[in-house]
C-alpha cells in the first residue's frame, strides 16, 4: 500500500465519483479505478458500492476513510518537519560547556537562539574540556564551548575562538599585592594551587608557560579538579592561584582577583564542532554566535579566527 492509494481513495470519497476525482487529481479516470481496485484487493475489504456512475462507501470504507485521512495528515506533518529540519527550524542541538568557562556571552547566546529558533531544543551538557573533545568526536555533542584542543583532536575538529579570557592572580585579601595589577615575577616564591591538568590541560599548560616565560617554575603544592575547589583551597591558606578572570563573577568575596601585567596572560574560550557532522541547526547557531561575539565577547587580543 502506498500513500497514492490513500490519496486516490480520499479524493474519490470527497468528490463522490471517479470522473470528478480524476479531474481534481489531474489523472485519468482509469488510473483511479485501477488504484482503488488494487487497494481493495490488498486489504481484502470492499470499500465501495458501485451503482452505474454513482459510488458510495461501504461501512468498512467509512472507517477506512477516517484512518486514511489521519495517515495522510501525519505524512504531511512528517514531510513538513523534515523540510523544517533541513532549514534548521526544528530538532535538537547538544551543547557542551564547563563551569568557569562561560559567562554573560554564553547566557545571551542561548537566550537569543531560543527566541530565533523556538522549534529547536537546546540540550546543555556540562562537561570538562577533555570530555567535550571526546564527545564531539563520538557525535555525542554538536557544539562544545571549551578550551584550546589537545593535539590528538585538532586534526579532526573545527575550532573558532569565542573570546580571550585574561588570567588573574587569586590572592587572599590581606596579601601585600592584593587589589592592584600584579607582575607575575613578584609571585615567583609563592605556593600555588592550580586546576589539575587532567581537568583542563590547556589552562594548566598555559599557566606553566606564562610562569616559565616570566622566569620561574611555580611551586605547586596541590591541584584540584574544579576551580571552585581551587578557590576553597586558597581561602583555606594552602597557597595562591591563577585562574581565568570570569571566575571573579562567582561571588567570592574574601579573595582578591588581580590582573596580571604579562601581555600573554590569557586563555582562549573556543567553540568546537565536528566538520563532518555539520547541519542546518548547528550552522544557524554558529552564525548567531558570530553575530553576537563583537557585542558581548571580552576579547582583548587578536580577532577570533577559525581553523580546522
Note down, in words, how this protein is organized.
The protein has helices at 3-15, 18-25, 29-43, 59-86, 104-116, 129-138, 151-154, 201-214, 227-235, 280-296; strands at 48-51, 54-57, 91-97, 120-126, 143-146, 158-172, 191-195, 219-224, 241-244, 255-259, 266-273, 306-307. It is an alpha/beta fold. It has three domains: 3-86, Winged helix-like DNA-binding domain superfamily/Winged helix DNA-binding domain (Arc Repressor Mutant, subunit A, Orthogonal Bundle), CATH 1.10.10.10; 91-162 and 269-307, 3-Layer(aba) Sandwich (D-Maltodextrin-Binding Protein, domain 2), CATH 3.40.190.10; 164-266, D-Maltodextrin-Binding Protein, domain 2. The strands form three sheets. Strands 3, 4, 5, 6, 9, 10, 11 and 12 form an eight-stranded mixed beta sheet that branches. Strand 3 (91-97), helix 5 (104-116) and strand 4 form a beta-alpha-beta unit. The radius of gyration is 32 Å and the shape is rod-shaped.
